[in-house]
Design goal:
The protein is built from no helices and 11 strands. It has about 180 residues and is an all-beta fold. The chain has a single domain, classed as TolB, C-terminal domain (Neuraminidase, 6 Propeller). A hairpin with a 2-residue loop joins strand 10 and strand 11. The chain is globular. The termini are far apart. It comes from Salmonella enterica subsp. arizonae. GO terms for molecular function: oxidoreductase activity. Keywords: Oxidoreductase. Its EC number is 1.1.5.-.
């Protein structure tokens, strides 16, 4: 785990899946760029065995310059991590900047966009400097999250009491207000 002594967005939620793998959600420590940097653990979901070892099938085990613990990345400030009791799917909730909370179903090796893709803005009211606009390259796949919701089950942006944006295939799309 990264040794952090200052800042915020620590994350630290943990859950075991049905196979005994330990998932740990780590915040980016308010250092936005680290969420996209594969040689750092900040802004990542890591996966270990129940004995604390790195599983050989983790997505970045054989990638030079990447931390082998990483399962997925592009995460801002994880606040919830749970296993869906019906499907066994891993669900991750993260606080976004103002107006940008997310619910993700993290998948192996996928990038969940932060800070390049976000619905929110900084609490100051300014745009997130690294955000690439309304469409940026990323990972995602559409699917059914809740009955009657036709957005993306793997990367749904939340806005107040409704879902505001969805991702489609390999493109993050920001919904029009």
């Amino acid at each position: 785990m990264p040794k952090l002594s200052t800042g915020n967005h620590f994350g630290g939620r943990m859950v075991f899946d049905a196979k005994g793998a330990l998932f740990i959600a780590l915040g980016e420590n308010n250092q936005r760029a680290t969420a996209q940097d594969l040689d750092k653990l900040q802004g990542k979901l890591v996966r270990l065995t129940g004995q604390g070892e790195i599983p050989p099938d983790n997505p970045f085990v054989h990638q030079a310059g990447a931390r082998p613990e990483i399962w997925s990345y592009g995460i801002r400030n994880p606040q919830g991590l749970a296993i869906n009791p019906w499907s066994g799917a891993l669900w991750l909730h993260e606080h976004g900047p103002r107006g940008g909370d997310e619910i993700n179903i993290p998948e192996k090796g996928k990038n969940y966009g932060w800070p390049l893709a976000t619905w929110g803005i900084n609490y100051s009211g300014l745009k997130v400097p690294e955000a690439k606009g309304e469409i940026v390259e990323g990972d995602g796949a559409t699917g059914l999250l809740l009955e009657g919701f036709s957005g993306d089950q793997r990367n749904g942006f939340l806005c107040q009491r409704r879902f505001c944006a969805v991702a489609a295939q390999t493109v993050y799309r920001r919904a029009k207000r």
